[in-house]
Sequence to fold (292 residues):
Amino acid sequence: MTTQGEFDLAVPARLFSATPSRLMSWLDCPRRYRFVYVDRPVPPKGPPWAHNSVGSAVHAALAAWWQLEARDRTPAAAARLVREKWVPLGFRDDADAVAWRDRATEMVERYVGRLDPYDEPLGVERTVAVKTSRLALSGRIDRLDRRGDELVVVDYKTGRHVLTTDDARGSMALAVYAVAAARTMRLPCARVELHHLPSGEVIVWEHSESSLERQLARADDIGAEAASAHAAVAGADPDALETAFPPRPGPQCGWCDYLAHCTAGQAVAPTRHLPWAGLPLEIVSSVDDVVD
Ligand code: SF4
Fold:
């Protein structure tokens, strides 16, 4: 206890800085986490993924579309932006890259055709942050809407997996964004939405205070594990690295950028998936097929 005339020398514990994707990376596989966040230089990754090329172009085009004057936010402008942002990496061949560019263009055109261009979002690719007792969490929200007196977190999805309410409910990232957005903007935020562009579906989840708290506690626990692994290897030898960041082999190994450096992963996934294997199988081609 500090008495009068003495200084309290207790130093607050340093917060561990993390994003939701960093925490999920730890959860998926500590060894892969190590390759990304610990090893320097970062080991060479495998070839680029075509689904990442599609996702990047779509996200970049949508962000740029919202930067236009509202009167210029047309489907044709969105199509032009996808073509401008397009990087043809990871596709089977040039013809496939062009076909996918055209499919991504149609997908974004169709999506923005259903938006009100004058309904200005509160944020686009907006960075938000929140502190817990152990973590300094931050992340970038694809789109933050204000609807009435409440905020809504919107996350664009372009992957092949059909999404369900469980994906929105169970997403730690979306929950962290909701809490961080509410703190940053000083408005309530309980609703999170996944906008799946290939199908046109919007998956919605309304969080309660307790479900947000649970997700934040989960983030805290994962962050604490990762932080103690970092602490265990500060200045230590390679054996300590192996122990602190163990491999967690599983179905994800076939998608791992570092499979070539990991014998544990190779035992369950002898070869990496083809670079275009993650592309959506189908894209809904008619607005009539779209489910709200
Ligand atoms: S190959 Fe599998 S076990 Fe190895 S680092 Fe990648 S995800 Fe982890």
